[in-house]
Amino acid sequence: MRHFLTDADLTPAEQAEVLQLAAELKDNRYNNEYRTLLERRTVALLLDKTSTRTRFSFSAGVTELGGNVVTADSKSSQMGKGETFQDTGAVLSRYAAAILWRTGAQANLEAMVETATVPVINALSDDFHPCQILADLQTVAENKGGQGDGPLGIGGLNAVYLGDGANNMANSYMLGFATAGVNITICAPEGFQPEQQFVEKARDRARETGARVTVTEDIDVSGADVVITDTWLSMGQDPSEDRSVLRDYQVNEELMATAPEAIFLHCLPAYRDSEVTPGVIDGPQSRVFDEAENRLHAQKALLVWLLR
Ligand code: CP
Ligand code: NVA
Q: Looking at the annotation, which residues are catalytic?
């Protein structure tokens, strides 16, 4: 039995297997051999933070696998009143085939897996958003597959993430893209760069795959195959902190013109005219709605891989 708490919880070969399965499930969405995999089974979805895509993509995906999702937010479950994560993990394992949890501290997830006897999946924490990265890699493979090497044909491609480099997405891009062998550059100003522990973790993985993990203040997307950004204010971050230095890192038409072959990705929700201009996110290089759709396919593949 395996959990998926960080992008490193799948080896490079396993990640490629999940992504190949995601592509197959997308091609054959309703009539595939896994459509009854979760028949009469329930998946628990715990949301301590708000969500649109995660809530609906997991709910739809589990339905398409023949199962049922029960969702609870932190206020409506006893965890909100102090029931331990360990007790909750033990109890939910008696009812559910898997536990999906969007929470704050990564340590919360680590506490739950002490007792959970079914797979626990990180549906976003303060440190990582690994399900999103599977969807992003699926989108990269759809658009750029074959231009690189490795099982998905994306190894050795170049991705650049600009903006808040000290959030969950930046950490997961480093770790998840390094796992896929995709070179990843985090382009962020001082004070908004990833913690060294996350850079090191990604570089450990990159040593296995040959990917490069770079952190820089310099804004340069020339030669990029993928340009990415995310909100400048993530859930749980302090809104009173001065984040104006991020303005230089906006993804706009002028910047994208220097990466004419690149696709643009954003995990969404997006804030137009902050981290990205409407001309980019609604423009010809954007693949953000395919990326959002791929949450569903990639997560179905992950569930199948963990539960079959
Ligand atoms: N990208 C993503 O996880 O979106 P939600 O916050 O809407 O779930
Ligand atoms: N970094 C964002 C991602 C939202 C899906 C946040 O944590 O709010």
A: 102, 129, 132, 230, 267, 295
**For range 135-162, the mean pLDDT:** 98
Global pTM value = 0.98
Closest atom of ligand 1 relative to the 123 alpha carbon: 3
State the Cα–Cα distance between residues 4 and 27, nearest whole angstrom. 24
The phi and psi torsions of 230 (rounded to 5 degrees) equal -150, 170
- Say if residue 130 carries a ligand binding annotation: yes
Domains and CATH numbers, the chain: 12-128+295-307 (3.40.50.1370), 132-292 (3.40.50.1370)
Q: Of all protein residues, whose CA lies closest to atom 2 belonging to ligand 2?
A: 234
Residues with CB under 6 A from ligand 1: 51-54, 124, 132, 267-269
Residues 157-171 have pLDDT tens digits of 999 999 999 999 999
pLDDT digits (tens, 9 = 90+) for 23-32: 999 999 999 9
